[in-house]
Design a protein that fits this description.
By secondary structure, the chain is mostly helical. The chain has one domain. About 80% of the residues lie in helices and about 0% in strands. The protein has six helices and no strands. Helix 2 runs antiparallel to helix 5.
């Protein structure tokens, strides 16, 4: 068992309802994207620093998941240097962030359980990896 499995198990406790899971498949990537974009718009170095810190956490938990999260993050960041208006990026990121969090809270209302990060902030990083782990299992990739 990897270090991340116990975290996935705890995360899954408040993500059992099919509607909540479906909402998470949409909203968790959007929140991740919006945070990266907002940081990039404010200071690209801050976005890179956040990615670096997150990758240390993921690598400590699971090297294969860290690699996957790095690829997902790179995909999210790749177009940003080509956008000329940081103000547009910041506005778009803010709108997506608010809408995606609204979706998350709807999902947790349906679930009848509070979001995992309320008890432990590291679950803000666990959520995206939890989704990626589903993809890995589907593809037969060990993590």
């Amino acid at each position: 068992m990897t270090r991340i499995e116990p975290l996935f198990d705890r995360y899954a406790e408040s993500h059992r309802h099919p509607a909540n899971k479906a909402i998470h498949w949409i909203c968790v990537p959007l929140i991740t994207w919006s945070v990266l974009v907002a940081l990039w718009a404010l200071a690209p170095a801050a976005a890179i620093a956040l990615v670096f810190a997150a990758m240390i956490f993921y690598a400590w938990m699971s090297w294969p998941l860290a690699l996957g999260m790095l690829l997902v993050t790179a995909f999210m960041l790749a177009p940003l240097p080509f956008v000329s208006s940081r103000a547009v990026l910041a506005g778009l990121a803010a709108a997506v962030f608010v809408a995606a969090w609204a979706g998350q809270f709807v999902g947790h209302h349906i679930e009848g359980r509070k979001p995992s990060f309320v008890d432990d902030l590291k679950f803000l990083l666990v959520g995206p990896a939890w989704l990626l782990a589903f993809v890995y299992r589907r593809l037969g990739i060990a993590y």
